[in-house]
Design brief:
mainly alpha; 24 helices; 0% strand
């Protein structure tokens, strides 16, 4: 028995323990506290929470902002995916990369950039002579502004889902329609759209869930407009009244999680009805000739990139270069003082960069190793290993589907008190943020590794086993190297997500354990706008460098591991 536990048995036991600690315990504790605050089911807690005026307004605002932005994001992302996936538009690789880049930029940075691009004190608009009248209200401080920016933030996500669906279509289906005389418009309407309907539904649901749990954009745009969503309401109550509000906040967190899970369940049901059976393997994408319309289509795509990427980035840079927000940018006023303050003077941003790099790096490395282990057991023929790995993957998808703020509440509930037997509390330390990252982002690491394992021939592992190689040796010499590119790509995606987030750490950070997201948010919230802009510019540049590194790794990774590479 001891010998068995040194190989696959020990690895499976480790996987099961990690699944319980990172997924079952936090999510179970949250559900127990929200559904049964006194240890027994109490429907009255839900009735009281839903009966409160502030909760009802926040729930309605969340549904309106998430639903409206999801529709707009799916429409925009779907149109872009159709253009880049089915036509002969030039520069599709570069455009795909640029369309996805805003999705990797932190939502609160997106909000700050657009606030600085549209407000009356915008240094960029003052430079161009286009600034609104002094004292006028920023048009983004409204429900419409929240919906607009959430749709911009999630367009890349919808584009990615629809593009994946388009690439899964057998080309002979479209070719058969063309042989029978169907023009591009009719083929799109009668063949392509019905076949990618499940992808459109998935894009709509994912954009809805992403917007539902978004904290940065509704906080920065909604609070001035008194448009409060559920995540913002949870944050305000917990930061105002402290851990004593945990039972009440847990009820709100369960409501948010339930809405997200209902959206995912509705997505699966709608996909099952809209699905169509396909035969044949995926083939290279179509390149329908646009003829004289191609320059106009390309101009529209580049205009989208300029509006959603170049304009807000230019606003961030111009704000970071002025001594105070509202000063006109010129040769006399331009200064690098904000960058010097952020990089060399103030301690908080330096700690935030170090903390985010360390925590995101640890989460990426640990989840990459866990993904390789989970992917191996998920493909086993034995029922128990496959069931354990499948349960871990399912719970990881569940944790990723619920908003990050809900994961934070679950972590506070679990780690507020000292750990049993150790007398050590993770609350108020970087450890609780790391635990939240491991729980919330596990699904991101699992997806590319699972795709890599699906392409491996099981005979490789069987041959090594027959030759007497133990489990860890097979992992080190065969399976590990073969899945390493996918694991590295998944790790970089986890790092990007954790490095840029603010939703998860908004409730978990403390002095000395700031993250980049919380530092930028706090600067903007306190009125130090040039410092927030400088940190945002550095974060965007770091994100761009990491995405370029991922693109380089994608040249050796299996197809589909890096989202924007064919």
């Amino acid at each position: 028995m001891i010998r068995r536990l040194t190989g696959e048995g020990a690895a499976l036991a480790l996987l099961a323990c990690l699944g319980v600690l990172l997924l079952v315990v936090p999510l179970g504790r949250l559900a127990l506290t929200g559904l049964a605050p006194g240890g027994v089911p109490d429907p009255g807690a839900f009735v009281a929470a839903l009966g409160a005026g502030s909760t009802l307004r926040a729930l309605a605002n969340s549904l309106v902002s998430a639903g409206g932005s999801a529709l707009l994001a799916t429409l925009a992302g779907g149109l872009i995916a159709l253009g880049l996936g089915l036509t002969d538009i030039r520069g599709r690789g570069v455009l795909t990369f640029l369309v996805l880049l805003p999705m990797m930029i932190p939502p609160h940075v997106t909000a700050i950039a657009w606030i600085q691009a549209t407000g009356p004190a915008s240094p960029l608009l003052l430079l161009l002579g286009l600034a609104p009248a002094p004292g006028s209200e920023n048009p983004l401080y409204s429900a419409g502004g929240v919906i607009a920016l959430l749709s911009v933030q999630n367009t890349g996500l919808a584009f990615l889902v629809v593009r994946t669906g388009l690439r899964a279509l057998p080309r002979d289906v479209s070719e058969a329609a063309r042989v029978f005389g169907a023009g591009p418009g009719r083929m799109l309407r009668r063949v392509v759209l019905p076949l990618v309907a499940p992808s459109l539904i998935a894009a709509l649901a994912l954009a809805f869930v992403s917007a539902l749990g978004n904290f940065g954009i509704p906080a920065l745009l909604g609070i001035p407009a008194r448009f409060t969503t559920l995540p913002v309401l949870i944050w305000r109550r917990l930061t105002s009244f402290g851990p004593g509000m945990l039972p009440d906040v847990a009820v709100l967190a369960v409501i948010v999680g339930a809405v997200a899970l209902l959206a995912v369940a509705a997505q699966r049901r709608a996909q099952a009805r809209a699905g169509a059976a396909l035969t044949g393997a995926p083939q290279p994408a179509l390149a329908l000739r646009l003829g004289r319309a191609r320059p106009f289509a390309e101009a529209a795509l580049w205009a989208w990139v300029a509006a959603t990427l170049a304009l807000p980035l230019a606003a961030l840079i111009s704000t970071a270069l002025v001594p105070a927000y509202g000063v006109r940018l010129s040769a006399e006023t331009a200064t690098l003082e904000s960058f010097r303050e952020v990089l060399f003077v103030q301690e908080a941003p330096l700690r935030a960069f170090a903390n985010s790099t360390l925590l995101a790096g640890l989460a990426a490395a640990l989840l990459a190793a866990l993904a390789v282990l989970t992917g191996y057991f998920a493909g086993r023929r034995a029922r128990l290993p496959r069931s354990v790995a499948g349960a871990v993957a399912t719970l990881a998808d569940l944790a990723y589907a619920i908003p990050g703020l809900v994961v934070s509440i679950a972590m506070i509930l679990v780690f507020l008190r000292p750990l049993p037997g150790l007398g050590v509390s993770l609350y108020g330390t970087g450890g609780i943020i790391l635990a939240a990252y491991l729980t919330g982002f596990m699904a991101i690491a699992l997806k590319p590794v699972a795709a890599a394992y699906a392409r491996l021939d099981p005979a490789l592992d069987d041959a090594a086993r027959t030759s007497g190689a133990g489990f860890w040796r097979r992992m080190r010499r065969i399976l590990g190297p073969l899945t390493a590119p996918a694991a590295a790509s998944g790790a970089i995606l986890v790092f990007l997500t954790a490095y840029n987030e603010v939703t998860v750490s908004a409730l978990l950070w403390s002095t000395g354990n700031e993250t980049i997201g919380t530092a930028i948010f706090n600067y903007e919230d306190s009125g130090a706008t040039p410092l927030a802009a400088a940190m945002s510019v550095i974060t965007v540049l770091a994100t761009l460098c990491l995405m370029l590194l991922l693109d380089r790794l994608g040249r050796r990774a299996p197809p589909g591991v890096v989202p924007w590479r064919d």
